[in-house]
Amino acid sequence: MAGITRPMSQMRKMEAKETLFRTRKRILNYLVLAFLKQEGFFHSAETFVREANLTGEYEICDNIDLDIILQDFCNYYLIRFNKQPQLCRKVQQTTAPIPPRPQTRRAERRKPSEEPAEKLECEKPHADLPSSITISSLDEVYLKPSPTVIDSKPILKDSTPSVLTKPLSGLMRCASQEKRELIEMLYQDIIRPSGVSWDDIKGLTEAKSLLMESVIYPVRYPEVFTGLLEPWRGILLHGPPGTGKTLLARAVAAESGCTFFNVACSTVITKWRGDSEKIVKVLFEMATYYSPSVIFIDELESIASDRSVPGEHEASRRLKTQLLTELDGFNEREGIVFLLANSNMPWDIDAAMLRRLEKRIHIPLPDFKTRTELFERFLSSKNIELYPKVDFQELASKTEGYSGSDIKLVCKEALMTTVRKILPSMNSKGNLLNRKDRLNVSEILTAIEKTKPVSKHLAFRHVKWQNEMGCS
Questions:
Q1: Mode of pairing for the β-strands spanning 437-440 and 337-343
Q2: Quick one: 389 and 309 in the same domain?
Q3: What's the rounded Cα separation, in Å, for the pair 220 and 152?
Q4: 346, 458 contact by CB (below 8 A)
Q5: 344 with 225, same domain?
Q6: Which residues contact 39 (CB under 8 A, 6 or more apart)?
Q7: What is the CATH number of the domain that holds 304?
Q8: CA-to-CA distance for 451 and 272, rounded, in angstroms?
């Protein structure tokens, strides 16, 4: 009886078909999810995971994706039917064409040389536009730069970051599963241009000028920076804490039009042996793919400290070696890739790293004029009323050695004194959002006395290091 095969019941056949249907549906869902991630649509992938109730229980095999399946199907269709399959077709317009407007007798009597007033008005150049611009379509206003206007404010095609124009699939197509995971992780560190501009940074005129010639101009005019005048590879911003180094980096991200990678220590340092070096290598590959790119590392001394210090771990040395190799390796890198780093303790950075940071720019404490502008900016709000009239120069003279962050903290502490008076009697929200705080000069002076600068004792050491090791 063991060799007898009984026919499958109707119920079991239906259950088998239902199981096969669910399996195919699950496979399709995970194929679509992998395709979305491969193309860089990570927000769409997250939404699809929530709506389809997908879990991490399954994953797509290394040698399977939608491109391979589509290619195999096209080959099968070509062999069987001797023609390519038609998978997509253009949607036909269902709306009826607009009938032509009937001409009046006045239009019929118009001579051929006479044109309607509307047409003549459209063909005239706009009064607010330069004569070098000819508008033929809406795209040309933003995508076709004028040859006579260099620093124009509209977003030009050349200033668009490559991350918005190049698909992620071109980088992940031939990558292994492990490399794809690293690419997806590093893709999250690409930040979009912020709203910070050069005008938002008070003072630091020399530093802004050096960053313009080191990052902005090589991207705008690559034909000038060739040969011996090739673009700089690395830039170091050093100075006491709170002087605006990170704010300058945010302005570079907004003004340069480059792909900006904000790399933290938690990104490149892992507990697994050898992964840190792989992350650094993939990072520079992505920066080359999306060039021109800027890789920003905050507090560089934390991952590129001096290798001659005794007791250094082997993993730290391997990470630094990989970083140095990527910055100045044997293979030439296509495109422009900058390393922008800042440090509060540049004397702890390895000498080999300093050699690759060709521009070493000192970001000093704000001078008298800059401190006056900072006080005026922080205290000249519509919600703050100063009485009696405040002399901002007097406040600047009493804050010698304060950084920009310290001055902001002084204004915050002074404004907090007015809020402390109304906190005990605050029962409901009321119109607190539209309140206007009255700030006395004595309260500002008291806040200056209570707030001590944290960067004053480091200023001289940075000046000394800049005189010995700086390059600006």
A1: unpaired
A2: no
A3: 12
A4: no
A5: yes
A6: 167, 168, 169
A7: 3.40.50.300
A8: 44
Q: 156 near 220, Cβ under 8 Å?
A: no
User: What's the CA gap between 276 and 316, in Å, rounded?
Assistant: 9
Q: Using CA atoms, how far apart are residues 8 and 355, in angstroms rounded to an integer?
A: 77
In a domain, residue 297? The reply is yes
- Between CA 328 and CA 355 the distance in angstroms is 10
Domain membership of residue 88 (yes or no) is: no
Domain housing 44: 21-81
166, exposed or middle or buried, with CB in 10 Å at 0-12, 13-18, 19+? middle
- Among 92-101, 169-178, 339-348, 447-456, the least confident range: 92-101
H or E segment to which residue 342 belongs: strand 337-343
- The per-residue pLDDT for range 329-388, each reduced to its tens digit, is 666 777 788 899 999 999 988 888 898 898 899 999 998 999 999 988 888 877 777 777
What does DSSP assign to residue 100? P
One-character DSSP codes across 241-310: TTSSHHHHHHHHHHHH--EEEEE-HHHH--SSTTHHHHHHHHHHHHHHHT-SEEEEESSGGGTSB-TTST
Q: Residue 246 pLDDT > 70, yes or no? A: yes
Stretch (H or E) spanning 385: strand 384-387
Do the beta carbons of residue 262 and residue 296 sit within 8 Å?
yes
- Of 199, 171, 184, nearest to 46 by C-alpha is 184
AA identity, residue 10: Q
C-beta neighbour count of 134 within 10 angstroms? 10
In a domain, 210, yes or no: yes
Domain end point (choices 56, 81, 106): 81
Residues 252 and 341 in one domain: yes
Bridge partners of residue 437, in order along the sequence: 384
Q: Regarding predicted confidence, which is higher, 472 or 368?
A: 368
Q: Quick check: 307 and 317 in contact, CB under 8 A?
A: yes
Of 291, 218, 213, 211, nearest in space to 252 by CA: 211
Co-location of 278 and 389 in the same domain: no
Q: Which residue, chain included where needed, has tokens 């090739």?
A: 230
Find how far residue 449's CA is from the centre of its chain.
Answer: 39
Domain shared by 352 and 290, yes or no: yes
Picking from 362, 385, 406, the residue at the C-terminal end of a domain is 362
Q: 447 - beta bridge partners? A: none
Maximum Cα–Cα distance across the chain = 107
252 and 339 housed in the same domain: yes
Instruction: Based on the fold, state whether residues 177 and 193 are members of the same structural domain.
Output: yes
Domain count, the chain: 3
SS3 call for 144:
coil
135 within some domain: no
3-state secondary structure of 151: coil
332 and 407 in a single domain? The answer is no
